[in-house]
Amino acid sequence: MKLFLRSHAVLILLFLLQGLFVFFYYWFAGLHSFSHLFYILGVQLLILAGYLAYRWYKDRGVYHWLSSGQEGTDIPYLGSSVFCSELYEKQMELIRLQHQKLHETEAKLDARVTYMNQWVHQVKTPLSVINLIIQEEDEPVFEQIKKEVRQIEFGLETLLYSSRLDLFERDFKIEAVSLSELLQSVIQSYKRFFIQYRVYPKMNVCDDHQIYTDAKWLKFAIGQVVTNAVKYSAGKSDRLELNVFCDEDRTVLEVKDYGVGIPSQDIKRVFDPYYTGENGRRFQESTGIGLHLVKEITDKLNHTVDISSSPGEGTSVRFSFLTKM
Amino acid sequence: MNKIMIVEDSEDIRGLLQNYLEKYGYQTVVAADFTAVLDVFLREKPDVVLLDINLPAYDGYYWCRQIRQHSTSPIIFISARSGEMDQVMAIENGGDDYIEKPFSYDIVLAKIKSQIRRAYGEYAAKQGEKVVEYAGVQLFVERFELRFQDEKSELSKKESKLLEVLLERGEKVTSRDRLMEKTWDTDIFIDDNTLNVYITRLRKKLRELNAPVSIEAVRGEGYQLRAQS
C-alpha cells in the first residue's frame, strides 16, 4: 500500500496543484462563493480517489509482490489488468530463459564430470597393467617406477574427487561412523606411502567415538592431509601423530607432524585454491588443490578444519566434528 | 585343480592374470569372444569367474545375470569403477565379490581362494594349507612353523610373515619396503630398526635348524636368500 501511494505521489500532487489553481482562478475571477469552489474541489478529489481505488484494485497483486520478501523464484498471479498480465508474461519469459541457461550449464557440468570419470577409469586399466608387471620386482629401478605409478594414482584420485565435488549434493550419505576405524582404513590405504617416505603413523584415540559424516569424503580429506604431512616430514622426522580428543559435544582429530612446517606468511592462504606457497616451490609436486579440497569438503560436511604450524617444528591440522546431529 | 575363467577385455591384464594364476596351480580359461561369454562358461564349467564390468558388446552385469541362470559358481567382478553404486550393482546382479583396479595379485588370489573355500567347502580348504619351500626349508604358513628335515621351530606371526615373503622370492632380491608392507597391520608395523632385529632373529632360527639357507643383505636394495651347498 505504501509503495502504491509512493508511486502515485506525483499524480496526487498534480491533482492538488490543479485543485488549488482552479480554486484561485475562480476566486480571482470574482467567484467568491465557497460552496461552489469546494464543490469543484470535492468533485476533483472524488475523481482522483476513484481512479486510485480502481488502480489499486487492479494492480494490488503487483504491489504486494513487489513489497514482499523474495522467497524462491515463483511469481504469484499478478492480476488481470493489461499492465499486470504483461508484466507477468515478461517475468515468466525471463525465468524460463534463466532456467534454460541453468539447465544447459548443469548438463555441461554433468557431461564434464562423466567425461572426467570415464577418462580416469580409462587410465586405470594401463596403470593396473603396469602394477601387475612390476609387482613382483624389487630392484631399485622398479621401486622407482612403483613410486611414480603411486604418484599418478594419487593424482587421479584427487582429480576424481575434485570433479565429483561439484555434484556433491547428489553424492553423499551422512551416517554414524567410528572415527578410529576410519583412521585405520586411511592408514591401511596409505601404508606404501608411509613406508616409501619412512614416516610412521601413530594413533592416539580416547575412546571409540562415533561421528556423523560421510565416510568416503572424509577419508579422502584426511588422506590428503596425511599425505601432505608425510611428504613434508620425510627425511626430517619419522613420526606422524593422529590424535583424537573428545569434548562433550565435539570430537577433534589432530594430524600432527614434525616436519618442515609452513612459513607464517603462507599459513593464512593454504586453503586457497592453487596456492602453493614457499613449500610448494621448494618441494615441487604441489598443485595447491589438496588442502583447498579438504576445506571445501569439510565445509560441505559441516565439520571445521584449521591449521597451525611453526616453521621448522611441524604442522598440525585439526578437524572438528559435531558428535551429535 | 580349480579352473578359473577370466573375462577381461584388456589383453595385457588377461595375460598377466593367466600367467600368475597358472603359476599358483590354477587352470585358466579366457573368453576372447565377448558376444559368447556364456557359451564358454557352459562349455568349460569353471569354478570361479573373474568378470570385468566394461566389456565390448554386453557389460559384465549382463553376463553375470546370464551365468546366474545356469550356475551358482562364484563370480568376482574386477573393474576400474570405484563408485559405491557400481559395487552395489555388481553384487545385486549376482556377483560374489568385487575387486577394484588397480589391484594386486595378492588380493586376486586371496579372493579366489576365499570364494573357492566358501563355495566348495572342506575339499578345497584341506588342500589349501600353504607351505612355502626353499632349498628343503619348509614354512607352514598357517601354523607359523619352520621345518628342515626333522627339526622344527616355532616362529612368531611377524617372523613367519617375513620368512614367507623371503622364501617365496628366494634368490630374487626382496626390498625392505616389500617386507615392511607385507607385515604392516593397521597401526602395528615394523620400522627400519625393528626389521633389522627380526632379520637377525630369523637368521638365528635358520642357523639353529642347520638349514642350508642364509639371508644375505644386498646393499641399498634389500635381502635375498642364498642356498649353501
The H-level CATH homologous superfamily of the largest domain in chain B, spelled out, is: Response regulator
**How many strands in all of chain A?**
7
Radius of gyration of chain A: 35 Å
Low-confidence stretches of chain B: none
CATH architecture of the largest domain in chain B: 3-Layer(aba) Sandwich
- The gross shape of chain B turns out to be elongated
CATH topology of the domain at 173-320 in chain A: Heat Shock Protein 90
Count of spatially separate domains of chain B: 2
Radius of gyration of chain B (Å): 21 Å
The biggest beta sheet of chain B reads:
5 strands, parallel
Span from first to last CA of chain A? 44 Å
What fraction of the residues of chain A are assigned to beta strands by DSSP?
Answer: 5-15%
Per DSSP E runs of 2 or more residues, the count of β-strands of chain B stands at: 12
Biggest interface, chains and residues, is: A-B, 35 and 34 residues
The number of helical segments of chain A is: 11
Protein name (chain B): Transcriptional regulatory protein YxdJ
Subcellular location (chain B): Cytoplasm
DNA-binding region (chain B): 129-227
Modified residues (4-aspartylphosphate) (chain B): 52
Task: Walk me through what this model shows.
The complex is a heterodimer of chains A (about 325) and B (about 230). Chain A is of the alpha+beta class and about 325 residues long. Among the domains of chain A are: about 95-165; about 175-320, Heat Shock Protein 90. Chain A has helices spanning about 1-5, 10-30, 35-65, 80-135, 140-165, 180-190, 190-195, 215-230, 265, 275-285, 290-300, and strands spanning about 175-180, 200-205, 210-215, 240-245, 250-255, 305-310, 315-320. In chain A, strand 4 (about 240-245) and strand 5 form a beta hairpin. The longest helix of chain A is centred in the first third of the chain and has 53 residues, at about 80-135. Chain A is elongated and about 120 Å long. Chain A starts with a helix and ends with a strand. The mean pLDDT of chain A is about 85. Chain B contains 9 helices and 12 strands. In chain B, strand 1 (about 5), helix 1 (about 10-25) and strand 2 form a beta-alpha-beta unit. With about 230 residues, chain B is α/β, with parallel strands linked by helices. Chain B folds into 2 domains: about 5-125, Rossmann fold, CATH 3.40.50.2300; about 130-225, Winged helix-like DNA-binding domain superfamily/Winged helix DNA-binding domain (Arc Repressor Mutant, subunit A, Orthogonal Bundle), CATH 1.10.10. In chain B, about 45% of the residues lie in helices and about 25% in strands. In chain B, helix 7 crosses helix 8 and helix 7 packs across helix 9. The mean pLDDT of chain B is about 85. The interface between A and B is medium-sized, with 35 and 34 residues.
